[in-house]
Write a structure and sequence with these properties.
Number of domains: 1
Order of helices and strands: HEEEHEHEHHEHEHEEEH
Radius of gyration: 17 Å
Strand order of the largest sheet: 1-2-4-3-5-6-7-8
CATH topology: Rossmann fold
CATH superfamily: Alpha/Beta hydrolase fold, catalytic domain
Distance between the termini: 31 Å
Number of strands: 10
Shape: globular
Structural class: alpha/beta
Number of helices: 8
Length: 280
Amino acid sequence: MTRRIALAALLSLACAPVLAAAPQAVSFASLDGTFLKAWVFAPARMPPRGTVIALHGCGGLYSTAASRQGQLNPRHQAMAELLVAEGYAAVFPDSLSPRGEQQICTQKLGSRRIDQGERRADTLGALAWVAAQPWASPARIALLGWSHGGSAVLSATDATRRDVTDVPARAAVAIAFYPGCSDSLKKGYKPNAPLVLMLGEKDDWTPPGPCIELGKAIGAETNVFEDSYHDFDNPVGAVRLRPDVPNGVNPGRGVHAGANPAAREKAYARLRELLGQAFR
């Protein structure tokens, strides 16, 4: 009965205008037992061409604007609309709110209560949940993540980990925007899915160097966008210094983050191609 209700709810979303994608709230368990909330966006025609699990960064899913309280931030909303317009379903799990956090960007790495252990468990739980849905094809699931969520893409596709290999569902393609790659590089990461890295040339928050080295080591597609900082695909705002972020290349001196529209256009054009190839 629960599945039939969920399917009916998703089918009802198909009537929503593509550019005003309205999400359906769902819940499922992370592999660590945490009960997660996620937002599902459905395309105009069901079943979808494929499903993209989209993983937020350290700032979480939601907008910080008072007028958009409880709504996705502009980057996530724009991505949801892009995916829906292409005929894909999009699933946005929330890893922070269920654990009592709104954001973890301003926390030092060593003091964070939510690290890649939790993010990996959440991502694997999302993969298992999507694969079990009557509207989804287990062979047509992609992972997409930004920053902390990009690192989660790496962690949840690491074939050297038992918890990863124990989950039957796996991604058809894994796309990580400006992840932190140092840990994966040190631990001998081996992907269980085709991996694509989207990096900012000038990123001083999660620098591109370790990711470039990782990409060479495993043969991953690595895209480095010139004159671009962290968060270069944000559809709003401009590059600014974030002195409140204690991590990065120069700890204690802040990091730069913000949009580069030209790089965003190139990255998203490649993303469309990758999904089209993966879900052929």
